[in-house]
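Hi team,

As requested, here is the filled-out complex form for the adenosine-5'-diphosphate-glucose run. I kept the field names the same as last time so the parser does not choke. Let me know if anything looks off before we queue the next batch.

— J.
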Amino acid sequence: MNRLVVVANRVPDPAARGATAGGLAVALQDALTRREAVWFGWSGRIAEATGGEPAETRIGRIAYTTLDLGREDHRRYYAGFSNASLWPTLHYRLGLAQFDRQDYAGYRAVNAAFADALAPRLRPDDTVWVHDFHLFPMAAELRRRGCGQRIGFFLHVPFPPAALFCALPRAEELLADLAGYDVIGLQTEDDVTNLRAALIGIGQPEAAARVAAFPIGIEAEPFAALAVKALEKRETERFRLSLVERALIIGVDRLDYTKGLPQRFCGYGQLLARFKAHRSKVTYLQVAPVSRGDVAEYRTLRRELDEWVGRINGQHAEPDWAPLRYMTRAVARPVLAGFMRMARVGLVTPLRDGMNLVAKEYVAAQDPEDPGVLVLSRFAGAVAQLPGALLVNPLDPDEIAEALDQALRMPREERQQRWQDCAVSVFRDGARAWCRDFLAALEGANDTAAEEPVR
Ligand code: ADQ
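And here is what came back:
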């Protein structure tokens, strides 16, 4: 079998296994172990200058090949254009997007440096799979260096309507670069519609025909097993005792403005204010590890959330009850899975989300006999696979409060039915299937791809 080359901003630390492994590493695990593979990208280290000889660590059949980034390049490419321009734009938040020509130049320079290092290492029959918005221009850069391999792209985040995306300076250049890919994968049909329209708008109907939806999933069975096993852990037992039989609501997100956390906290405050029966009967745990502390918006959000927590606990707490427990550090997956299983409600209310794997993990973690209820934003890509969730508009705190009330009072039979409706896709359409479907489309892609949509 030919080699698979995965290109992503971050290459997982080959030493980090299980608990600390990131989402993409878990999703690709299967594909990466079944054939010879290269994982190529940034090392996570900052050097004087970008480039130099890439470092290579081999584990089994996987070669982890990484490049250091210069301080200035990193700042402009990562904190700058990727996180302060593209991230807000792709999440429909044009008002938060900043544009700086030098950031954009840094973004292109890092993509070019990646291509310089990768092109000479590619074999003619390699399959190359590029991930996410940090690397839109990657295929175009590789093509400029004479690479004729099959190159696919998967965007993990949403793609907004064309008019919105095209308001970002240089958007058309980025779109034109997408034409270098053989397959362009997105999370939802809405994303596909949007990107196709944008590509047609710049006169690239052939590229538009190569866009298709590949909704990402999780490996649900191992996660469910983790959740059951977690109940034996001392950490989980201590947490359960600390709840003194109060119903648990759980939220798990990176601390990011797309996740709708202030609105969610406000909605929980409304629950306590409007539906008094739940007072002192419910505890909400929000786990939100800090991310991207080098972007100003994230620091502002953190302060805002600190205020919300103080306000809600100050207003509603009793000497023996803190309604909201909030932590800004990560919790190890095996423990988190147990917390999810214990929770009567999974509260997932992003303002926009490509997919949202936490929603799927919450479903996987439930006890089918006595499952909890998923309260889910209608703007998460995962909505399409989770018909049993209680849907909310995450911008409406009253709607969040009403859904929480409904979830907390829901009879067991209805909870079972709703869980069943969600579990079908969560257990069937896993990460492996996602990976297999994408690679099948990419490796089956041929010259007729221009005439026919991939699937
Ligand atoms: P993220 O924005 O990071 O991912 P999400 O899909 O919800 O969002 O989470 C990714 C993983 O991180 C999940 O496995 C989750 O359990 C873990 N995680 C999140 N918060 C955690 C915490 N507090 N402690 C421990 N683990 C935590 C991007 C896109 C999403 C898309 C994914 C995958 O923004 O829309 O679903 O990529 O394509």
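Two things worth flagging: Residues 23, 156-157, 216, 252-254, 287-289, 330-331, 336, 353-358, 361 surround adenosine-5'-diphosphate-glucose (CB under 6 Å). The chain has 17 helices and 14 strands.

Thanks,
J.
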